[in-house]
Design goal:
39% of the residues lie in helices and 16% in strands. The chain has 570 residues and is an alpha/beta fold. The strands form 4 sheets. It has a 6-stranded parallel β-sheet, with helices on both faces. A 6-stranded parallel β-sheet has the order 15-14-16-17-19-18, sandwiched between helices. The longest helix is centred in the middle third of the chain and has 23 residues. The protein is globular, with a radius of gyration of 25 Å. The structure holds adenosine-5'-diphosphate (ADP) and ligand TPW.
């Protein structure tokens, strides 16, 4: 431990760094400023990686991505008040997506804040954070830093993972204490995310339902990806022969080309399955709340749900067989219960799915073969599909509307935890933060598939990507606007329409401005060449892929969520 030699003292700066390192947390995603700048310098000097961003939201998204990929809480650090608020969206998004991350913010002196006497960046941050995260703590005494960090870690990863806020008033950093006492105050967390074993009754109940199903379906959510129970999940699917449907961030748990994948027959299986086993997936808006025209007739389907959160059960529809526990323990218990005797689903169910899947894949293949000029979403995504097939270890980050919806079905994934996208909240702006978090955490090539509007939310981090020379290849689907580039201002005023961007924008020049590789691609061949070079070189690259401004639809596949005016018809 770094201490003040003459007086054998330590202080809050050193204890915070030691507490993080003691718990295997060696990377900080943050943005310097009062009161954390010197801490970031000290942490770096102490051997920690400090990745410094241009906006705190992106640092927070990077920390959340690191949490999802590693099961250890990603660490985000911000300055007080405005910096804290900038990070709050990422903290809330991490909590919504069940990604473990800890946001540590410097804050103003309690005495002044509590008397509202107008401190520099005055805000009661611990209170402000509470509604948006799993837990919110504040440390007021240097000797409590160890326990504060330990509590934050356990809150972030135990049970349903999520975001945690840890508030450190400026003066706590500077408080000193005797070095040996400081060392003793540190806490190494034991078994932060304990296994939660399902009851044998719940497992038997679930197996009873599954065994008697005529048209079973397994639905894999991002919780199944996060759980890192990859082999058992694959064994459960292959041993039972049950078709499976991966949600977007569960893609790759089994290769998307797997013969039991029902992704290309999604509407058929959701409507016709009679028993649905949910593994780490919520029946929220992404699954039409488990009811309505997406699903079968009311009462015709029964659900089994594996989740670590007992209160998730019955959230939208009645769950006939809840199995509460961590996915690893639950799936292994199911496998034990299945043993070696299992009757595969009826051939007519499997055949119906295969027929629908083949028909849809054939239709898609025909679309992907087209080579129009300018490129369309599909013709450009056909290139990326081939690139990822050749580099299945690459991590795909994806945001936008059409760019998101089409990429989800066109770009196959082959390995677990290789796709990071807008997730449960559909939040734009995760792109560069997730890309940086993934590149720093894994060292793998990252391909960021970005709508041009979506990229705009975090585009300044191109400089961060160049500064750390990260292997990130950004492909911007530049169709000249939000959703499309064809909107018009009907008022007759000279202002452009609300969803239209500068025509012929050259985002590639942004990357060149910071020393990276910028490419302007107007054809599939140019896009393919640029992506291959980017992956091979590992150089920060931004490809400005020109997409037909007429291609796509407003809000992609969720246009129905837009309220319709009775009097205004765009
Ligand atoms: N290790 C785990 N064990 C069990 N359940 C988990 C685990 N990690 C996350 N979960 C659960 O997984 C679910 C993830 O659901 P969701 O985010 O809706 O996935 P998707 O959007 O992919 O369907 C959450 O309800 C969460 O409680
Ligand atoms: C923080 C936040 N603010 C706004 C929005 C609303 C929105 C949803 S999708 C989208 C961008 C669509 O344009 P893009 O060009 O990226 O997509 P594409 O159709 O593929 O060309 C916006 C602005 C969301 N979801 N989050």
């Amino acid at each position: 431990m770094a201490t003040s030699a003459e007086a054998k003292l330590t202080d809050g700066f050193h204890l915070l760094a030691e507490a993080l390192k003691l718990n295997g947390l060696d990377t900080i995603f943050g943005l310097p400023g009062i009161p954390i700048t010197d801490f970031l310098r000290l942490a770096q000097a102490d051997g920690m990686r400090v990745i410094s961003f241009r906006h705190e939201q992106n640092a927070g998204h990077a920390a959340a991505a690191a949490g999802f990929l590693t099961q250890k809480p990603g660490i985000c650090m911000t300055v007080s008040a405005p910096g804290f608020l900038n990070g709050l969206t990422a903290l809330a998004n991490a909590t919504t997506n069940c990604f473990p991350m800890i946001m540590i913010s410097g804050s103003s002196e309690r005495e002044i804040v509590d008397l509202q006497q107008g401190d520099y960046e005055e805000m009661d941050q611990m209170a402000a954070a509470k509604p948006f995260c799993k837990a919110s703590f504040r440390v007021l005494h240097v000797e409590d830093i160890g326990i504060g960090v330990a509590r934050a870690i356990r809150a972030a990863v135990s049970g349903r993972p999520g975001g945690v806020y840890l508030d450190l008033p400026a003066k706590v950093f500077a408080q000193s204490m005797e070095a040996e006492a400081g060392r003793r105050s540190l806490v190494q967390v034991v078994d932060a995310a304990p296994r939660q074993i399902p009851s044998s009754e719940s497992v038997e109940r679930a197996l009873g339902l599954l065994k008697n199903a005529k048209k079973p379906l397994i639905l894999l959510g991002k919780g199944a990806a996060y759980a890192q129970a990859d082999a058992d999940i694959r064994a459960l699917i292959e041993k039972t022969g049950i078709p499976y449907l991966p949600m977007s961030m569960a893609k790759g748990l089994l290769p998307d080309t797997h013969q039991q994948s029902a992704a290309a027959a999604r509407s058929l299986v959701l409507q016709q399955a009679d028993v649905v086993l949910l593994i780490g997936a919520r029946l929220n808006w992404l699954l039409s709340h488990g009811k309505g025209k997406t699903w079968g007739k009311p009462g015709s389907q029964r659900f089994i749900q594996i989740d670590i959160s007992p209160t998730e059960i019955d959230s939208n529809v009645a769950i006939a067989a809840p199995v509460i526990g961590d996915i690893g323990s639950c799936v292994s218990a199911l496998l034990v219960g299945i043993g070696n005797k299992w009757t595969a689903p009826a051939a007519d169910w499997i055949d119906a799915i295969s027929k629908r899947r083949e028909a849809n894949l054939t239709k898609m293949a025909a679309t992907l073969l087209k080579n129009p000029s300018p490129m369309t979403f599909h013709s450009a995504l056909g290139v990326i599909r081939d690139i990822v097939k050749a580099r299945p270890d690459a991590i795909v980050v994806n945001e936008g509307a059409n760019t998101l919806d089409f990429a989800r079905s066109v770009v196959d994934m082959y390995e677990p935890r290789r796709r990071l996208d807008v997730g449960t909240w559909g939040v734009m702006g995760i792109g560069m933060g997730y890309a940086i978090g993934a590149a720093v955490t894994t060292g793998k090539p990252v391909i960021a598939i970005e709508g041009d509007s979506a990229f705009g939310f975090s585009g300044m981090e191109v400089e961060t990507i160049c500064r750390y020379n990260l292997p990130v290849c950004i492909v911007i689907f530049n169709n000249g606007g939000v959703y499309k580039g064809t909107d018009t201002n009907v008022s007759g005023h000279s202002d452009v329409a609300p969803t239209v961007f500068v025509k012929g924008a050259r985002y590639d020049k942004m990357m060149e401005a910071f020393g990276g590789v910028g490419v302007h691609a107007t054809t599939r061949e140019e896009l393919m060449r640029a992506m291959k070079e980017a992956i091979a070189s590992g150089k920060p690259t931004l490809i400005n892929a020109v997409i037909d401004e007429n291609d796509g639809t407003e809000s992609g596949r969720i246009g129905n969520l837009n309220p319709q005016s009775a009097t205004y018809f765009p």
